[in-house]
Design a protein that fits this description.
The protein has a two-stranded antiparallel ribbon. A hairpin with an 8-residue loop joins strand 1 (138-141) and strand 2. The chain starts with a helix and ends in a 14-residue tail after the last helix. It has 13 helices and 2 strands. The chain has helices spanning 2-32, 39-61, 66-91, 101-123, 154-176, 178-188, 190-195, 200-226, 232-236, 239-246, 251-271, 273-276, 280-295, and strands at residues 138-141, 150-153.
Length: 309
Protein backbone atom coordinates (compact mmCIF):
# COMPACT_ATOMS: atom_id res chain seq x y z
CA UNK A 1 0.00 0.00 0.00
CA UNK A 2 2.86 2.39 0.83
CA UNK A 3 4.39 1.84 -2.61
CA UNK A 4 1.02 2.52 -4.27
CA UNK A 5 0.69 5.78 -2.32
CA UNK A 6 4.23 6.80 -3.32
CA UNK A 7 3.38 6.19 -6.97
CA UNK A 8 0.04 7.99 -6.64
CA UNK A 9 1.55 11.06 -4.95
CA UNK A 10 4.38 11.17 -7.48
CA UNK A 11 1.82 11.08 -10.28
CA UNK A 12 -0.19 13.91 -8.72
CA UNK A 13 2.93 16.06 -8.36
CA UNK A 14 3.94 15.46 -11.99
CA UNK A 15 0.36 16.09 -13.08
CA UNK A 16 0.36 19.52 -11.45
CA UNK A 17 3.45 20.45 -13.48
CA UNK A 18 1.78 19.21 -16.67
CA UNK A 19 -1.22 21.36 -15.75
CA UNK A 20 1.02 24.39 -15.37
CA UNK A 21 2.34 24.01 -18.92
CA UNK A 22 -1.14 23.22 -20.26
CA UNK A 23 -2.39 26.43 -18.69
CA UNK A 24 -0.37 28.38 -21.23
CA UNK A 25 -2.21 26.65 -24.08
CA UNK A 26 -5.58 27.35 -22.45
CA UNK A 27 -4.83 31.03 -21.76
CA UNK A 28 -3.94 31.83 -25.35
CA UNK A 29 -6.75 29.75 -26.83
CA UNK A 30 -9.34 31.38 -24.54
CA UNK A 31 -8.24 34.87 -25.53
CA UNK A 32 -7.49 34.48 -29.23
CA UNK A 33 -8.80 31.14 -30.45
CA UNK A 34 -5.20 30.24 -31.39
CA UNK A 35 -3.85 26.80 -30.51
CA UNK A 36 -0.34 27.88 -29.57
CA UNK A 37 2.13 25.20 -30.60
CA UNK A 38 4.89 27.57 -29.47
CA UNK A 39 4.13 27.05 -25.76
CA UNK A 40 6.76 24.31 -25.41
CA UNK A 41 9.34 26.53 -27.12
CA UNK A 42 8.34 29.37 -24.78
CA UNK A 43 8.98 27.14 -21.76
CA UNK A 44 12.43 26.24 -23.09
CA UNK A 45 13.28 29.83 -24.08
CA UNK A 46 12.21 31.16 -20.67
CA UNK A 47 14.18 28.48 -18.81
CA UNK A 48 17.29 29.20 -20.90
CA UNK A 49 16.92 32.91 -20.17
CA UNK A 50 16.58 32.29 -16.43
CA UNK A 51 19.58 29.94 -16.30
CA UNK A 52 21.88 32.17 -18.33
CA UNK A 53 20.91 35.45 -16.67
CA UNK A 54 21.58 33.83 -13.29
CA UNK A 55 25.12 33.15 -14.56
CA UNK A 56 25.67 36.55 -16.18
CA UNK A 57 24.20 38.92 -13.57
CA UNK A 58 27.03 38.42 -10.99
CA UNK A 59 29.60 39.62 -13.54
CA UNK A 60 27.36 42.57 -14.47
CA UNK A 61 26.47 43.71 -10.95
CA UNK A 62 28.97 42.11 -8.57
CA UNK A 63 26.14 40.62 -6.48
CA UNK A 64 26.65 37.22 -4.86
CA UNK A 65 23.53 36.39 -2.82
CA UNK A 66 21.72 33.43 -4.39
CA UNK A 67 18.20 34.64 -3.64
CA UNK A 68 18.91 38.12 -4.97
CA UNK A 69 20.55 36.70 -8.10
CA UNK A 70 17.63 34.36 -8.75
CA UNK A 71 15.13 37.17 -8.22
CA UNK A 72 16.96 39.50 -10.61
CA UNK A 73 17.37 36.73 -13.19
CA UNK A 74 13.66 35.93 -12.94
CA UNK A 75 12.67 39.58 -13.37
CA UNK A 76 14.97 40.09 -16.35
CA UNK A 77 13.72 36.87 -17.95
CA UNK A 78 10.14 38.03 -17.36
CA UNK A 79 10.85 41.36 -19.06
CA UNK A 80 12.31 39.43 -21.99
CA UNK A 81 9.18 37.26 -22.23
CA UNK A 82 6.99 40.39 -22.24
CA UNK A 83 9.10 41.81 -25.08
CA UNK A 84 8.69 38.52 -26.97
CA UNK A 85 4.92 38.71 -26.39
CA UNK A 86 4.80 42.28 -27.72
CA UNK A 87 6.81 41.31 -30.81
CA UNK A 88 4.59 38.28 -31.46
CA UNK A 89 1.51 40.48 -31.37
CA UNK A 90 3.06 43.34 -33.30
CA UNK A 91 4.77 41.38 -36.05
CA UNK A 92 2.62 38.23 -36.36
CA UNK A 93 -0.81 38.03 -34.73
CA UNK A 94 -1.71 41.67 -35.22
CA UNK A 95 -1.41 41.13 -38.97
CA UNK A 96 -3.55 37.99 -38.92
CA UNK A 97 -6.72 39.25 -37.22
CA UNK A 98 -9.85 37.34 -38.37
CA UNK A 99 -7.79 34.89 -40.45
CA UNK A 100 -8.59 31.17 -40.60
CA UNK A 101 -7.59 29.03 -37.64
CA UNK A 102 -5.14 26.98 -39.71
CA UNK A 103 -3.33 30.20 -40.67
CA UNK A 104 -2.89 31.13 -37.02
CA UNK A 105 -1.79 27.58 -36.19
CA UNK A 106 0.92 27.70 -38.86
CA UNK A 107 2.01 31.08 -37.49
CA UNK A 108 2.56 29.56 -34.04
CA UNK A 109 4.58 26.74 -35.62
CA UNK A 110 6.79 29.38 -37.19
CA UNK A 111 7.13 31.09 -33.80
CA UNK A 112 8.16 27.73 -32.32
CA UNK A 113 11.10 27.23 -34.65
CA UNK A 114 12.08 30.88 -34.40
CA UNK A 115 12.22 30.73 -30.58
CA UNK A 116 14.20 27.47 -30.69
CA UNK A 117 16.77 29.05 -32.98
CA UNK A 118 16.84 32.35 -31.10
CA UNK A 119 17.34 30.51 -27.81
CA UNK A 120 20.40 28.70 -29.16
CA UNK A 121 21.79 31.91 -30.65
CA UNK A 122 21.39 34.01 -27.51
CA UNK A 123 21.98 31.48 -24.74
CA UNK A 124 23.84 28.53 -26.26
CA UNK A 125 22.90 24.89 -26.58
CA UNK A 126 24.62 23.30 -23.56
CA UNK A 127 22.83 21.83 -20.56
CA UNK A 128 22.40 24.45 -17.84
CA UNK A 129 21.41 24.26 -14.19
CA UNK A 130 18.78 26.27 -12.37
CA UNK A 131 19.06 26.36 -8.60
CA UNK A 132 16.28 28.35 -6.97
CA UNK A 133 16.61 26.71 -3.59
CA UNK A 134 13.92 24.04 -3.92
CA UNK A 135 14.59 21.29 -1.34
CA UNK A 136 16.09 18.20 -2.94
CA UNK A 137 15.99 15.76 -0.03
CA UNK A 138 13.08 13.29 0.21
CA UNK A 139 10.93 12.91 3.28
CA UNK A 140 8.85 10.12 4.74
CA UNK A 141 5.16 10.55 5.54
CA UNK A 142 2.68 8.34 7.43
CA UNK A 143 5.49 6.48 9.20
CA UNK A 144 3.04 5.51 11.95
CA UNK A 145 0.74 3.77 9.47
CA UNK A 146 3.21 2.09 7.09
CA UNK A 147 6.52 0.46 7.84
CA UNK A 148 9.22 2.83 6.65
CA UNK A 149 6.67 5.50 5.71
CA UNK A 150 5.74 6.86 2.30
CA UNK A 151 8.65 8.38 0.39
CA UNK A 152 7.81 11.82 -1.04
CA UNK A 153 10.06 14.28 -2.85
CA UNK A 154 10.13 17.68 -1.13
CA UNK A 155 11.04 19.27 -4.46
CA UNK A 156 7.93 17.80 -6.08
CA UNK A 157 5.77 19.03 -3.19
CA UNK A 158 7.18 22.55 -3.41
CA UNK A 159 6.80 22.60 -7.20
CA UNK A 160 3.21 21.36 -6.98
CA UNK A 161 2.39 24.01 -4.37
CA UNK A 162 3.79 26.74 -6.64
CA UNK A 163 1.86 25.38 -9.61
CA UNK A 164 -1.39 25.15 -7.61
CA UNK A 165 -0.99 28.72 -6.35
CA UNK A 166 -0.39 30.05 -9.85
CA UNK A 167 -3.30 28.12 -11.34
CA UNK A 168 -5.63 29.39 -8.60
CA UNK A 169 -4.49 32.96 -9.07
CA UNK A 170 -4.99 32.87 -12.83
CA UNK A 171 -8.43 31.30 -12.42
CA UNK A 172 -9.46 34.18 -10.15
CA UNK A 173 -7.94 36.65 -12.61
CA UNK A 174 -10.10 35.32 -15.43
CA UNK A 175 -13.28 35.26 -13.38
CA UNK A 176 -13.05 38.33 -11.18
CA UNK A 177 -11.26 41.09 -13.10
CA UNK A 178 -12.33 43.39 -15.91
CA UNK A 179 -9.31 42.35 -17.97
CA UNK A 180 -10.23 38.70 -17.52
CA UNK A 181 -13.76 39.37 -18.75
CA UNK A 182 -12.32 41.27 -21.72
CA UNK A 183 -10.15 38.26 -22.51
CA UNK A 184 -13.21 36.01 -22.55
CA UNK A 185 -15.09 38.49 -24.74
CA UNK A 186 -12.27 38.53 -27.28
CA UNK A 187 -12.23 34.73 -27.30
CA UNK A 188 -15.98 34.59 -28.02
CA UNK A 189 -16.01 37.07 -30.91
CA UNK A 190 -13.13 39.29 -32.06
CA UNK A 191 -15.32 41.65 -34.08
CA UNK A 192 -17.96 42.05 -31.37
CA UNK A 193 -15.26 42.76 -28.80
CA UNK A 194 -13.76 45.43 -31.06
CA UNK A 195 -17.19 46.99 -31.58
CA UNK A 196 -17.54 47.72 -27.85
CA UNK A 197 -14.09 49.27 -27.58
CA UNK A 198 -11.90 46.35 -26.52
CA UNK A 199 -8.43 46.63 -28.08
CA UNK A 200 -7.35 43.31 -29.60
CA UNK A 201 -3.70 44.33 -29.64
CA UNK A 202 -3.72 45.19 -25.93
CA UNK A 203 -5.55 42.00 -24.97
CA UNK A 204 -3.24 39.80 -27.02
CA UNK A 205 -0.13 41.41 -25.56
CA UNK A 206 -1.56 40.82 -22.06
CA UNK A 207 -2.45 37.19 -22.68
CA UNK A 208 0.85 36.36 -24.36
CA UNK A 209 2.68 38.09 -21.51
CA UNK A 210 0.74 36.04 -18.95
CA UNK A 211 1.43 32.89 -20.98
CA UNK A 212 5.10 33.91 -21.01
CA UNK A 213 5.04 34.26 -17.23
CA UNK A 214 3.46 30.81 -16.92
CA UNK A 215 6.09 29.41 -19.30
CA UNK A 216 8.83 31.00 -17.20
CA UNK A 217 7.54 29.48 -13.96
CA UNK A 218 7.13 26.09 -15.63
CA UNK A 219 10.59 26.35 -17.19
CA UNK A 220 12.19 27.22 -13.86
CA UNK A 221 10.52 24.29 -12.10
CA UNK A 222 11.24 21.74 -14.85
CA UNK A 223 14.75 23.15 -15.29
CA UNK A 224 15.41 22.75 -11.58
CA UNK A 225 14.29 19.12 -11.79
CA UNK A 226 15.78 18.03 -15.12
CA UNK A 227 18.30 20.69 -16.10
CA UNK A 228 17.75 23.19 -18.91
CA UNK A 229 18.22 21.36 -22.20
CA UNK A 230 16.44 21.27 -25.52
CA UNK A 231 14.54 18.10 -24.63
CA UNK A 232 12.61 20.36 -22.22
CA UNK A 233 10.39 21.48 -25.09
CA UNK A 234 9.46 17.81 -25.64
CA UNK A 235 8.45 17.52 -21.98
CA UNK A 236 6.24 20.55 -22.50
CA UNK A 237 4.50 18.79 -25.38
CA UNK A 238 3.07 16.36 -22.80
CA UNK A 239 0.69 19.22 -22.06
CA UNK A 240 -1.04 18.68 -25.42
CA UNK A 241 -2.89 15.56 -24.24
CA UNK A 242 -3.72 17.43 -21.03
CA UNK A 243 -5.64 20.17 -22.85
CA UNK A 244 -7.33 17.57 -25.06
CA UNK A 245 -8.60 15.79 -21.96
CA UNK A 246 -9.61 18.89 -20.05
CA UNK A 247 -10.88 21.03 -22.91
CA UNK A 248 -9.13 23.82 -24.76
CA UNK A 249 -11.09 26.58 -23.00
CA UNK A 250 -11.19 25.28 -19.44
CA UNK A 251 -8.71 26.20 -16.71
CA UNK A 252 -10.20 23.59 -14.29
CA UNK A 253 -10.02 21.12 -17.18
CA UNK A 254 -6.29 21.78 -17.53
CA UNK A 255 -5.84 20.99 -13.84
CA UNK A 256 -7.89 17.80 -13.86
CA UNK A 257 -6.44 16.65 -17.17
CA UNK A 258 -2.91 17.08 -15.86
CA UNK A 259 -3.69 15.11 -12.70
CA UNK A 260 -5.32 12.30 -14.68
CA UNK A 261 -2.38 11.96 -17.03
CA UNK A 262 0.24 12.32 -14.30
CA UNK A 263 -1.34 9.62 -12.14
CA UNK A 264 -2.31 7.42 -15.09
CA UNK A 265 1.14 7.25 -16.64
CA UNK A 266 2.84 6.50 -13.32
CA UNK A 267 0.41 3.76 -12.28
CA UNK A 268 0.32 2.19 -15.74
CA UNK A 269 4.12 2.12 -15.95
CA UNK A 270 4.40 0.41 -12.56
CA UNK A 271 1.50 -2.03 -12.70
CA UNK A 272 0.98 -2.67 -16.44
CA UNK A 273 4.45 -1.95 -17.82
CA UNK A 274 6.05 -5.24 -16.69
CA UNK A 275 3.48 -7.18 -18.75
CA UNK A 276 4.02 -5.09 -21.91
CA UNK A 277 7.76 -4.61 -21.76
CA UNK A 278 7.75 -1.11 -20.21
CA UNK A 279 7.74 2.28 -21.86
CA UNK A 280 4.04 2.93 -21.19
CA UNK A 281 4.85 6.23 -19.48
CA UNK A 282 6.08 7.61 -22.81
CA UNK A 283 2.92 6.98 -24.85
CA UNK A 284 0.13 6.61 -22.28
CA UNK A 285 -0.93 10.27 -22.43
CA UNK A 286 -1.17 10.31 -26.22
CA UNK A 287 -3.20 7.12 -26.43
CA UNK A 288 -5.60 8.46 -23.80
CA UNK A 289 -5.88 11.73 -25.74
CA UNK A 290 -6.65 9.77 -28.92
CA UNK A 291 -9.46 7.95 -27.16
CA UNK A 292 -10.91 11.26 -25.99
CA UNK A 293 -10.73 12.66 -29.52
CA UNK A 294 -12.74 9.67 -30.72
CA UNK A 295 -15.31 9.63 -27.92
CA UNK A 296 -15.48 13.17 -26.51
CA UNK A 297 -13.49 15.57 -28.71
CA UNK A 298 -14.43 18.66 -26.68
CA UNK A 299 -12.78 17.20 -23.56
CA UNK A 300 -14.15 16.90 -20.05
CA UNK A 301 -14.99 20.60 -19.58
CA UNK A 302 -14.73 21.95 -23.12
CA UNK A 303 -17.61 23.56 -24.94
CA UNK A 304 -19.40 21.48 -27.55
CA UNK A 305 -19.21 23.31 -30.89
CA UNK A 306 -22.30 23.00 -33.09
CA UNK A 307 -22.17 24.46 -36.60
CA UNK A 308 -25.32 24.97 -38.65
CA UNK A 309 -25.10 23.93 -42.27
Amino acid sequence: MAFFLETLIGGLMTGMLYSLVALGFVLIFKASGVFNFAQGAMVLFAALAMARFAEWIPSWTGLSGKWMLNLLAFLVAMVLMVVVAWLVQRLVLGRLVNQEGVTLLMATLGITYFLDGLGQTLFGSDIYKIDVGLPKDPMFLLANHFQGGVLVSQEDLAAAAIAATLVTGLSLFFRCTGTGRALRAVADDHQAAQSIGISLSRIWVIVWSVAGFVALVAGVIWGSKLGVQFSLSLVALKALPVVILGGLTSVPGAILGGLIIGVGEKLSEIYIGPFLGGGIEIWFAYVLALLFLLLRPQGLFGERIIDRV
